[in-house]
Design a protein that fits this description.
Order of helices and strands: EEHHHEHHHEEHHHHHH
Distance between the termini: 94 Å
Strand order of the largest sheet: 3-2-5
Shape: globular
Radius of gyration: 24 Å
Strand content: under 5%
């Protein structure tokens, strides 16, 4: 096959998670269910936060943004996979592959930065409670979200601009269910050393910045909590951080697990299966973690559902009320 860098043809074939035809209906139903649960769960979080005045605080503002990003994150990969399974096709065009990769990197990176911003929010709320409304004002909250988007916009665009320099044989097979940068660098027919170096350096910088921000925030939080003598105040502070810590552990734990599986296993298909954890499972579980561990969110969801499905108002029977006159 000749190596080309075409934009109008379909040089890529997504092999998916399995070639077994008997497993395709099962995979379609499983991923469709997970996608619908992810969209519905995160959409309920967004509606609960926006509709309840009690949740109009920086912490829940960032939570609603995180839910929106999770919806976008899964929407970049799962719908294309479902269409390929349903139509029994594996091809993806060059522009479509680059677009999918760009948004996957951008929304995945925004998840990473938003978790850091949420850790900083908890640090200010617990360590500087009197100045919390002044520090975490709406202007700063919007600026933090915008900065997260701008950084990942530049990072994702950098990788895309470096990638268009490479050539790929027409009909290149990608052993994955979406266009992942690492997989594309492995199947490129031209030298991808610069891309690989840039990938590892940028990823290390982004992860180091986020991890250090989260560790610093919780170190300060733990130090402040150790000085508190009131057990009830400690419990309340820990409860507000518990959901965030669970999501952080899930996000970084699954990402680290995929990295280890890539280092240990030589099978690209196994790495594709492992990547389902951080690309599908984590966004699906986030709404459950934040709602089940947070009474404010549970209460807001209950009020939202009661407004959406109002209870019928029963009209009393005058014969039973004692005021009926024949």
């Amino acid at each position: 096959m000749t190596a080309k860098n075409l934009t109008g043809e379909s040089p890529f074939l997504l092999l998916g998670l399995s070639d077994d035809p008997q497993l395709q209906p099962l995979l379609f139903g499983l991923f469709l269910s997970m996608y619908l649960i992810t969209v519905l769960g995160n959409l309920l979080i967004i509606l609960a936060v926006t509709s309840d005045p009690h949740l109009h605080t920086p912490m829940y503002f960032f939570l609603s943004i995180l839910s929106f990003v999770d919806i976008c994150f899964t929407s970049t990969t799962i719908p294309k996979m479902l269409v390929n399974i349903q139509t029994q096709r594996k091809d993806i065009s060059y522009p479509e592959c680059l677009t999918q990769m760009y948004f996957f990197m951008m929304f995945g990176g925004m998840d990473n930065f938003l978790l850091t911003v949420m850790a900083y929010d908890r640090f200010v709320a617990i360590c500087h409670p009197l100045n919390y409304p002044v520090i975490m004002n709406p202007h700063l909250c919007g600026l933090l979200v915008l900065a997260s988007w701008l950084v990942m916009f530049c990072v994702a665009m950098l990788h895309i601009l470096l990638l268009v320099r490479l050539t790929f044989p027409v009909g290149t097979e990608i052993p994955h269910f979406f266009c992942e940068l690492v997989q594309l660098l492995e199947v490129a027919s031209s030298d991808a050393l610069v891309n690989t170096i840039c990938l590892y350096v940028v990823t290390a910088l982004v992860c180091a910045f986020s991890a250090s921000g989260i560790l610093f925030s919780y170190r300060q939080i733990l130090s402040s909590l150790m000085k508190l003598s009131n057990t009830a105040s400690k419990h309340k502070a820990f409860s507000t951080c518990g959901s965030h810590l669970c999501v952080v552990a899930l996000f970084y734990g699954t990402g680290f697990g995929v990295y280890l599986s890539s280092a240990v296993s030589l099978s690209p298909r196994y790495r594709a299966v492992a990547s389902v954890m951080y690309s599908v499972i984590t966004p699906m579980l986030n709404p459950f973690i934040y709602s089940l561990r947070n009474q404010d969110v549970m209460g807001a969801l209950g009020r939202l559902l009661r407004r959406a499905v109002p209870c019928p108002k029963w009209i009393p029977d005058p014969k039973l009320s004692g005021h009926y006159k024949p």
